[in-house]
UniProtKB/TrEMBL annotation:
Residue stretches making up the Nucleoside phosphorylase domain: 32-280
Top-level EC class as recorded in UniProt: transferase
GO terms, molecular function: purine-nucleoside phosphorylase activity; uridine phosphorylase activity
Domain of life: Bacteria
EC number: 2.4.2.3
Protein name: Uridine phosphorylase
Cellular component terms (Gene Ontology): cytosol
Length: 295
């Protein structure tokens, strides 16, 4: 017999929508763009040919519409993998749990997630205003540690990085998860490079930034930048990708993260045209989706 999820586990609002996102199952397209900044949602949907719905609650703003005959949902996650836990569990519930019987559906739907985010490079040769596809996400947060996840990790790279860093005494246990290669192919061109992205649990200390507080690990970014294993090096830092890759893979979905590089931490630069660069990445992403087999 199938288990019915209780009211405290699958939480629905009075109108039948899912607790934090305020969405109904029919509100969701199969292709989903995630962005961190709620204001970036309309920067994406302003390009749509039509918008069928706009909903939101807290930092989770959602627009669903059509672009070049593709139905697309764009949703903001806010900042951090704690929010990724909420967004990805609730989006998967919309697709794969029957809200009437409260049972997990036998036939699962696979969603395609494309993150359009901003990020800081730690390599001097990756300039501000460039674009980067994360071929892996390395979680310096703790989200994946709360789920059984041994089967979806890149064990070889995780072990190599863990022994190189030797930061277990700092309670740092990075998890390493790869992108969905078939989804990433859609976004390949000579305008965008591949890299490996660290997902941090903060923007300042956890990304090696020092304003007034002393860091617990000296030369944090230099140490990350110096990692090398079979042609793999770490390229950039942000705050969501590893959590997205981990939860998407665990739930049977596809995910790829596209980064607009706004900071170069090695050279101390920050983009003077961040809005334009993000706008260009949005147009680049939508054009690639238009020319893809995504439905
Ligand atoms: O621009 P977004 O998508 O929010 O991404 C980056 O920007 C935020 C920090 O400024 C973090 O969320 C980081 O991951
Ligand atoms: O340096 C940066 C720039 C954007 N987003 C981040 O998380 N870090």
């Amino acid at each position: 017999m199938k288990a019915s999820l209780s009211n405290s586990e699958l939480i629905l609002n009075a109108d039948g929508s899912i607790y934090h996102l305020n969405l109904l199952p029919e509100d969701l397209a199969n292709s989903i763009i995630t962005v961190g900044d709620p204001e970036r949602v309309s920067e994406v949907s302003k390009h749509f040919d039509s918008i069928e719905l706009k909903k939101g609650k807290r930092e989770f703003v959602t627009h669903t519409g059509t672009y070049a005959h593709k139905r697309i949902t764009v949703i903001s996650t806010g900042i951090g993998t704690d929010n990724i836990d909420i967004v990805f569990n609730e989006l998967d519930a919309l697709a794969n749990i029957d809200f009437v019987s409260r049972e997990i559906k036998f036939k699962k739907k696979q969603l395609s997630f494309i993150r359009i985010g901003t990020s800081g490079s730690i390599q001097p040769d990756i300039p501000v205003d460039s674009f980067l596809i994360s071929s892996s996400g390395i979680g310096f947060d703790n989200l994946l540690h709360f789920y059984e996840h041994g089967h979806i990790k890149n064990h070889e790279l995780e072990s190599a990085l863990t022994s190189y860093l030797g930061w277990a005494d700092h309670n740092i246990h990075p998890y390493f998860v790869d992108f969905d290669e078939s989804l990433a192919k859609i976004f390949e061109s000579n305008r965008i490079r591949y890299g490996v992205t660290v997902t941090n649990s903060g923007f300042y200390g956890p990304q090696g930034r020092t304003l007034r507080l002393a860091p617990s690990i000296q030369d944090f970014n230099d140490k990350l930048a110096g990692f090398s294993h079979k042609n793999t090096r770490i390229t950039n830092l942000e705050m969501e990708t590893a959590g997205i890759y981990g939860l998407a893979k665990l739930l049977g979905h596809r995910a790829v993260s596209l980064n607009a590089i706004l900071a170069n931490r090695a050279t101390g630069e920050f983009s003077k045209q961040g809005h334009k660069t993000v706008e260009e990445l949005i147009k680049y992403t939508l054009s690639a989706i238009a020319n893809s087999d995504l439905t």
